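Narrative of activities, Objective 1.

The group set out to show that a structural description can be obtained from nothing but a protein's sequence at a throughput compatible with the screening campaign. Below is one input-output pair from the validation batch, recorded exactly as produced.
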Amino acid sequence: MWKHYFRRGLIYGLDIFDKTALSEDRMRVLQGDQGDRQFLDAMARQFGPFDIVIDDGSHMSHHVITSFNALFPLLRPGGLYVVEDLSCLYLAAMGRHCQSIGPVRGH
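Output recorded for this entry:
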């Protein structure tokens, strides 16, 4: 999806599972742990600076904070840092549904 949306950009994807076989021209898929600060620091030094960072990872607060602390410093001036689903961590597993806006029902 991202390579079609950002038609001229070089896309780096990160997943904890090995999806490196999906790499192709303009799109590099890396395997790593969003909660591993050392990995993120090394990755950011190797591939940064970044124009846009979209964090749609584990959605767990400590992972979001770790990623932000490692990647935001390597965001270019005027760049965008986007975090998706910040308050929705694994609600489905608890029998609840995530809502984009407003409180979670059942609380």
